[in-house]
Design goal:
The protein is mostly helical. It has 2 domains: about 10-135, Orthogonal Bundle (Arc Repressor Mutant, subunit A); about 140-225, no CATH class. About 45% of the residues lie in helices and about 10% in strands. It has helices spanning about 25-35, 60-65, 70-85, 105, 125-135, 140-150, 160-170, 175-185, 205-215, and strands spanning about 40-45, 45-50, 55, 85-90, 95-100. Strand 4 (about 85-90) and strand 5 form a beta hairpin. The protein is elongated, with a radius of gyration of 22 Å.
Length: about 230
C-alpha cells in the first residue's frame, strides 16, 4: 500500500484514542505524534533538559500509563525498536531521551511528493549516530573526553561512576568542568580534582565576564567560579 494521509496531533483529543490498551502499532504511531517537532526544553528535578526535533522526553512510567501497559512491556517494546534501529535511547543524569531514527522522513513536506520506491536520504546507522550526538548536552560531551582518556590508560569508568560525576558537574559551569577534566588529562591523573579550580584572582577577563552574565541570568544550577574552592 502506498500514499500518504495527514494525521493531526489533535487526534489524541478524541475519546476513542485512549479508550483501550494500545497495540504495538498504535504505540509506534503515538511515539511519532508525541515526538518534538521543534527543538525545545523542559525541566526535571530543577535541571534543564534540552530536547531536539524527533526526540521524546517521556519516561517508562509515563508511557506505561499512556498506553495502558505494564512497565516491563514498555521496556521490551522499546528494546525491540532499538534492535530494529527505529529509535535510539540515551540516558542523561536526570532522564532518558528517545530519538526517532529518520524522524524527518516521517514529517518533511516534500516526502509526500516522492514516488513510493524512492529511498530515504540517510541510512539508519548514520542517523543513529546523529541522534546520539544531539541527545547529549555539553557537559556530557565534556565528560566523554574523560571517559575516553580513562579507557586509553586502561582504567575504564563504571556507568554508575559516570552518573556520579555528571551529578557533580551540575554544580559547576561548563568552563569549570572543562578546566578540571583537561587539567587531569594534561597531568596524567586518574581522578578529577575540583579543588584545583582557579581562584577569582587567577581568572581571565573572559571568565569573569562569563560569571557576571550567569549571575544576571540567575541560573540556579550554575555555580560561580569564585565559589569553586
Amino acid at each position: 500500500m502506498s500514499g500518504w494521509i495527514k494525521l493531526h496531533r489533535k487526534i489524541t483529543d478524541n475519546p476513542l484514542y485512549f479508550s483501550e490498551p494500545f497495540t504495538r502499532s498504535m504505540a509506534w504511531v503515538d511515539m511519532l505524534l508525541i515526538a518534538n517537532h521543534t527543538d525545545n526544553f523542559f525541566f526535571k528535578r530543577g535541571i534543564r533538559v534540552d530536547i531536539k526535533t524527533g526526540q521524546i522526553g517521556y519516561d517508562l512510567d509515563t508511557l506505561s500509563k499512556r498506553w495502558k501497559w505494564s512497565r516491563g512491556k514498555v521496556e521490551r517494546f522499546l528494546q525491540m525498536l532499538e534492535k530494529d534501529e527505529q529509535i535510539v535511547r540515551q540516558k542523561t543524569n536526570v532522564t532518558t531521551l528517545i530519538s526517532i531514527v529518520n524522524y524527518k522522513e516521517y514529517q518533511t513536506d516534500d516526502k509526500a511528493n516522492r514516488k513510493a520506491n524512492d529511498k530515504p536520504n540517510s541510512k539508519p546507522n548514520e542517523h543513529k549516530q546523529e541522534c546520539i550526538r544531539n541527545i547529549k548536552n555539553e557537559k556530557e560531551l565534556i565528560l566523554d573526553r574523560w571517559i575516553e582518556y580513562r579507557k586509553q590508560i586502561k582504567k575504564p569508568i563504571k556507568e554508575a561512576t559516570q552518573e556520579t560525576i555528571l551529578a557533580k558537574m551540575e554544580n559547576f559551569t561548563e568552563e569549570q568542568c572543562k578546566f578540571v577534566i583537561d587539567n587531569s588529562i594534561e597531568n596524567g591523573w586518574q581522578g578529577l580534582f575540583w579543588d584545583k579550580l582557579p581562584k577569582k584572582e587567577e581568572l581571565s577577563e573572559e571568565q569573569l565576564t562569563y560569571n557576571y552574565v550567569q549571575k544576571m541570568l540567575n541560573f540556579k544550577d550554575t555555580k560561580d567560579y569564585s565559589n569553586a574552592d
